[in-house]
């Protein structure tokens, strides 16, 4: 209508006019579910994900939010494969990085690629490396035994983590008291480690570089563009289900974590250094990207599998044609 217009104004205008109390706004900012860019667009009129600099704008990522249910464990009799991916952080300091874990469910396509469903996400702050190992052991052995790879960030604080898996691990069932011993887990490129008795070479260590980052971030964008990556719906879509007791708090947290993932992605921009190297920077420097990085790590392993599958399909086609 020519008689109306819409303006997005910062919260300070509401404070001045007596609509808001500034203390209430600042309390909202301090909530654990409030990311910096979410606060900026809800209260400051700054829309990072709609910024032309964003490599993953909302218009790209929001259409992928189609999953109605999180998975806290794989369904009974599930035949699906999963990839567990973990970005390491140990500090409990204010504004420090979070350790972030994704579980990606793979659904094969006829062309050798996969639909990738991010069905589980959890973050920890200040968790020690032994506790992170325990968490990943439980996630694999007890909840997602169909996982084919556990991807671990080995930069900095993450370097010692894989070694903690190299011995058998005991789990005591709290209901029955039964103790079960699980075998060592070793890195898939550790030839000596593979000789450890009963060892399972399921760990993959990731050490990011500019080159690998470019591959990971561009493939992540491709997955959004071709619709093969599927994420959980916005938490606002499942609020009523949570309030009515239809989903648990842990399930609901997976939706909230996905909200924060979208915020982190929207804050990433592609840039070039003075030497012409492609880098991926944060538009708002203070905002973390633990969830985005962890997801990119996991998808890089999916890309490996897809390339291998496609090569095998091509070889099969060649073999069939050579018989004529």
Architecture overview:
35% of the residues lie in helices and 22% in strands. The chain is globular and about 75 Å long. An 8-stranded mixed beta sheet has the order 1-10-4-3-2-5-9-8, sandwiched between helices. A two-stranded antiparallel ribbon has the order 6-7. Helix 6 packs across helix 9 (290-322). By secondary structure, it is α/β, with parallel strands linked by helices. The chain contains 9 helices and 12 strands. It has helices at 11-16, 22-30, 36-43, 58-61, 129-143, 210-225, 239-243, 249-266, 290-322, and strands at residues 65-67, 81-87, 99-108, 114-124, 147-153, 169-172, 179-182, 185-187, 200-206, 229-232, 268-272, 278-282. The mean pLDDT is 89. Strand 3 and strand 4 form a beta hairpin.
Compute the CA-based radius of gyration: 22 Å
Head-to-tail CA distance between termini: 69 Å
List the total number of helices. 9
Structural class: alpha/beta
What do the pLDDT scores average to? 89
Largest sheet, if any? 8 strands, mixed
Fraction of residues in H or I helices: 25-40%
pLDDT < 50 runs, ≥5 residues: none
Write the element-wise H/E pattern from the N-terminal end onward. Answer: HHHHEEEEHEEEEEHEHHEEH
Lateral strand order in the biggest sheet: 1-10-4-3-2-5-9-8
Which range does the strand content fall in? 15-25%
The global form is globular
What's the total count of β strands? 12
């Amino acid at each position: 209508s020519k008689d109306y217009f819409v303006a997005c104004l910062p919260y300070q205008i509401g404070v001045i006019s007596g609509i808001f109390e500034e203390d209430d706004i600042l309390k909202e900012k301090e909530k654990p579910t409030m990311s910096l860019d979410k606060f900026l667009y809800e209260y400051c009129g700054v829309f990072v994900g709609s910024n032309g600099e964003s490599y993953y704008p909302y218009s790209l990522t929001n259409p992928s939010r189609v999953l109605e249910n999180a998975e806290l464990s794989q369904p009974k009799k599930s035949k699906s494969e999963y990839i567990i991916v973990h970005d390491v952080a140990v500090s409990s300091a204010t504004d420090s990085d979070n350790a972030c874990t994704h579980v990606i469910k793979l659904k094969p396509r006829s062309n050798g690629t996969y639909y990738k469903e991010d069905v589980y996400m959890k973050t920890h702050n200040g968790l020690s490396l032994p506790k992170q190992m325990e968490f990943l052991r439980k996630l694999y052995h007890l909840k997602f035994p169909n996982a084919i790879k556990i991807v671990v960030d080995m930069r900095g604080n993450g370097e010692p983590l894989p070694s903690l898996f190299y011995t058998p691990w005991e789990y005591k069932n709290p209901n029955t008291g039964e103790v079960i011993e699980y075998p060592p887990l070793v890195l898939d490129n550790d030839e000596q480690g593979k000789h450890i008795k009963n060892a399972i070479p399921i760990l993959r260590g990731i050490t990011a570089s500019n080159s690998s980052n470019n591959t990971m971030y561009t493939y992540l964008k491709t997955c959004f563009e071709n619709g093969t990556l599927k994420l959980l719906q916005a938490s606002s879509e499942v609020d009523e289900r949570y309030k009515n007791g239809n989903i648990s708090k842990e399930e609901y947290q997976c939706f909230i974590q996905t909200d924060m993932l979208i915020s982190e992605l929207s804050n990433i921009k592609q840039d070039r250094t003075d030497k012409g190297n492609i880098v991926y920077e944060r538009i708002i420097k203070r905002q973390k990207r633990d969830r985005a990085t962890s997801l990119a790590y996991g998808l890089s392993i999916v890309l490996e599998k897809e390339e291998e599958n496609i090569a095998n399909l091509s070889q099969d086609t060649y073999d069939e044609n050579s018989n004529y």
